[in-house]
Design a protein that fits this description.
Strand order of the largest sheet: 11-17-16-15-14-13-12
CATH class of the largest domain: Alpha Beta
Structural class: alpha+beta
Distance between the termini: 12 Å
Oligomer: single chain
Radius of gyration: 22 Å
Number of helices: 5
Order of helices and strands: EEEEEEEEEEEHHHEEEEEEHH
Helix content: 10-25%
Number of strands: 17
CATH architecture of the largest domain: Alpha-Beta Complex
């Protein structure tokens, strides 16, 4: 298995992490425990293993702002240092007595974790996920609805590539995002792939016919899309239908639980005030429920990065420009988790 990545990934909904109760999570094949020292405190993330005898710290509790192991009561402060051993009340634990900690923060209604101790405030050394500075959702419609989590038995890069793919609309999402009714509804128009200042591929404009582009849609319309990669396992699309339909944006956030198992959240940014949060979440759940069986059927589950014509490579066509650019970019980054 690949080592933990230097990139930030979402590991839990922020609302699910309560001050009094540790929360078990997972990323990159590693069990984690998330906890808060108190109400409103920033999250902390440790490897879910007490350094004393290996018990799961997520079975413990938070007491007096410290995480207490359920086995022998060792207590750890937010940074990971052990600050108390009940069996030795007069003993001051040395610096080596500490839990293995990851960086943690909140953004977009999610708790994010990063194994790289040098990564702070959304990227620091340019390692990929610019989550807070600058905010990738800045300037988008102000209403935000978090959807998920959804678990899917495939790699995170497969999920992201599917999110970027438009040629499947009329087949996987027929009646919603695509239609077989006319050939021009299935054809992929010529589009341009451009890299941003950080080298992340994107498409500034893509046009598609959609029978029902959103929860509020009353009929079919041509819809203008744009796509941006935010990091190895996160992306953003914006869409605006012709006429008076509200503009919307969808952010995809993936947590690679394992090489071939992914947890997914979406943030919907919308101008629409006619639909409640539950209706928006239900629509997104319907769309992803159509994607999931196809994603889980793909073999290999890990995304092949091999160049066309070499062993293990998949075939491409002109409609796959963005997918090909994404694969090439992952290779350049060295973001190999979930690839082959």
């Amino acid at each position: 298995m690949s080592p933990p990545s230097p990139w930030w990934v979402p590991v839990a909904g922020a609302a699910d992490l309560r001050a009094a109760t540790p929360l078990a999570a997972r990323a990159f094949g590693e069990d984690l425990v998330l906890w808060r020292a108190g109400e409103g405190a920033a999250p902390s993330a440790f490897v879910d293993r007490c350094p004393h005898r290996g018990a799961r710290l997520s079975r413990g509790r938070v007491a007096d702002g410290r995480l207490e192991c359920a086995y022998h009561g060792w207590r750890f402060e937010a940074g990971g240092q052990c600050v108390g051993i009940p069996a030795l009340p007069g003993f001051t634990p040395p610096a080596a007595h500490r839990a293995c900690s990851w960086q943690a923060m909140e953004a977009h209604g999610l708790v994010w974790a990063c194994a790289d101790a040098s990564a702070r405030d959304g990227g620091g050394d340019g390692t990929g996920e610019a989550l807070l500075a600058p905010d990738p959702l800045e300037g988008l419609p102000a209403r935000r609805v978090l959807c998920g989590p959804f678990d899917v038995a495939t790699s995170a890069p497969r999920v992201v590539e599917n999110f970027l793919d438009t040629a499947h609309f009329g087949f996987v999402h027929e009646g919603f995002l695509g239609s077989r009714e006319q050939p021009d509804h299935l054809s992929v128009p010529d589009y341009r792939v451009e890299a941003d200042s950080q080298g992340r591929p994107g498409v500034p404009l893509y046009r598609a016919w959609q029978p029902r582009a959103s929860t509020a849609a009353q009929g079919g319309a041509w819809v203008d899309y744009s796509y941006r990669l935010l990091g190895p396992w996160s992306a953003l699309l914006t869409k605006k239908a012709e006429g008076s339909a509200p503009s919307e944006a969808y952010a995809l956030w993936c947590c690679p639980l394992e090489e071939e198992h992914t947890r997914v959240w979406f943030t919907i940014c919308t101008d629409d005030t006619s639909q409640g949060d539950d209706a928006l979440r239900a629509f997104q759940a319907t769309i992803f429920s159509q994607d999931a069986p196809v994603l889980e059927s793909q073999r290999p589950r890990r995304l092949p990065l091999a160049a066309p014509g070499t062993a293990g490579a998949e075939l491409h066509c002109a409609a796959d420009r963005l997918s090909v650019a994404y694969r090439r970019w992952l290779g350049e980054l060295g973001a190999r988790f979930g690839t082959c």
